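Sample entry was shown:

___
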Amino acid sequence: MKTKMKLLASLKIWLVIYPSITLFLFLFGEGLSIFPLYQRTLILTIVLVPWVVFVGVPVVDKLISPFFTNNEKGK
């Protein structure tokens, strides 16, 4: 059961982080290319970590929770 929960948590984070990084780099990648790698990474994490933690994962939780609810409530 613990492994299943960890797998689900990893999947939810991946569902948020992959498109977020892709969109961020699509929109701002060229403008950020003037900075050294460590500064680009810092900017990317300053923006995306709060986005993932406070917006992205809660939205994914809300969207997928109907598929993972306990169907034994009426029993």
Summary: Helices lie at 2-32, 37-64. The mean pLDDT is 90.
